[in-house]
Amino acid sequence: MHLQTLDYAVVLVYGVLLLILAQWVSREKAGHEKNTQDYFLAGRALPWWAIGASLIAANISAEQIIGMSGSAFVLGIAIASYEWMAALTLIIVGKWLLPVFLKHRIYTMPQFLEQRFDHRVRMVMATFWLGVYVFVNLTSILWLGSLAINSVTGIDQTWGLVFLGLFAVAYSLYGGLKAVALTDIIQVVLLVLGGLLIAWISMNEISGGQGAIAGFAMVLEAENVIARNRLLMGATDPKKADRGTIRADLADNVEQNIVHGSDAPETAETEINYFFSKLDIIS
Hints:
Elements: H1 5-25, H2 36-41, H3 48-58, H4 62-75, H5 81-103, H6 109-116, H7 119-153, H8 157-172, H9 177-206, H10 212-233, H11 243-259, H12 265-282
Helix pairs in contact: 1-8, 1-9, 3-9, 4-7, 6-7, 7-8, 9-10, 10-11, 11-12
């Protein structure tokens, strides 16, 4: 299903407002010429809440919304441990390591390595990570973003990739870190609320309109059933799991619910068929 006229209008207005905001926050006072400190450190004038919002927004992208969601479907919820561990790491860094870096005016890891060792180590580190970000991180994120654009609009994926790259350059190149950080405040709100809304709608759809909590319970039950079936069949891919065994196992669980009074007998087969129709869609 592709976007409608109203959807395109909302996206267009959002993009224009984001560009305007980026240019507005990037302007300098009369007589002040922008320098490297202004460009890369936002003049050291960002409030803590803007830095926190930008940190969260910078860690949420197509890599998480599309890539990790797909991995979770194939591998299970364990893929989330990557982000859970990152949250714990950020707390440790912010509490004990970051104050030391700020005290010594260290803003990047290559800078730290130069002070700890020499400029050669800094050059190796900077070159390595520049290559990783350009050829691994940015390319995968742009590709996943263009894949989403292609799915909802039908626009060729190459043009979607070019559009995303040009749009990112348009609102960040002139203003530097200040433009990125302050526009991230808006984006992090939309990313978090949008992600929660999508999760809620998805769980509600899975349960057939019985609510997100009921849908989540169905997902957990299905995951347990599929996991048991994998052990029996020796399958590692959920798409290869035998659906006949899964259906029988689900029927047994629904039967147990009927015995305990949590399901009506006439809805048992309907629930099973509805679940499998949703499983076919996302497969």
